[in-house]
């Protein structure tokens, strides 16, 4: 599970439009990182938001997962919107990147 990647498929076209994954097992604090990407023509249409929400729900269904993190480049505004819409908040940054997180409630 933690080393699996999934394809995001647009059912009506039976077309792969993106992908998402966990970037390894939860660490000793219960933190797991997610990653995702979309084909350009399918960005800003809500598909990534829907997929990331489901990935978060999947991760939080495991008792040992307490926090989900992600990173984005500072200029990747569509990805910032996705992470904000699913409830993640920025918690760290450097010159090029933002780091985001959401905690299990």
Structural descriptors:
2 helices; globular; acyltransferase activity, transferring groups other than amino-acyl groups; Aminopeptidase; 105 residues; 22% helix; 6-stranded mixed β-sheet; alpha+beta
Distance between the termini: 22 Å
What is the N-to-C succession of helices and strands?
Answer: EEEHEHEE
Structural classification: alpha+beta
Q: Which fold name corresponds to the CATH topology?
A: Aminopeptidase
What would a concise description of this structure say?
This protein is an alpha+beta fold and 105 residues long.
What would you note in describing this structure?
- It holds the Pfam family Acetyltransf_3.
- It comes from marine sediment metagenome.
- This is N-acetyltransferase domain-containing protein.
- GO terms for molecular function: acyltransferase activity, transferring groups other than amino-acyl groups.
- Residues 1-105 form the N-acetyltransferase domain.
- With 105 residues, the chain is of the alpha+beta class.
- The chain has a single domain, classed as 3-Layer(aba) Sandwich (Aminopeptidase).
- The chain is built from 2 helices and 6 strands.
- The protein has a 6-stranded mixed sheet, with helices on one face.
- Helix 1 (47-60) links the parallel strand 3 and strand 4 (67-73).
List the helices and strands and how they pair.
Elements: E1 5-10, E2 15-22, E3 31-38, H1 47-60, E4 67-73, H2 77-85, E5 89-93, E6 97-103
């Amino acid at each position: 599970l933690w080393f699996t990647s999934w394809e995001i498929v647009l059912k009506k076209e039976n077309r792969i439009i993106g992908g998402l994954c966990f970037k390894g097992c939860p660490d000793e604090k219960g933190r797991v990182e997610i990653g995702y990407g979309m084909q350009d023509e399918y960005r800003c249409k809500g598909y990534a938001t829907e997929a990331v929400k489901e990935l978060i729900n999947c991760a939080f269904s495991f008792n040992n997962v307490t926090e989900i993190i992600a990173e984005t480049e500072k200029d990747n505004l569509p990805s910032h919107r996705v992470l904000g819409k699913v409830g993640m908040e920025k918690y760290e940054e450097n010159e090029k990147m933002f780091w985001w997180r959401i905690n299990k409630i």
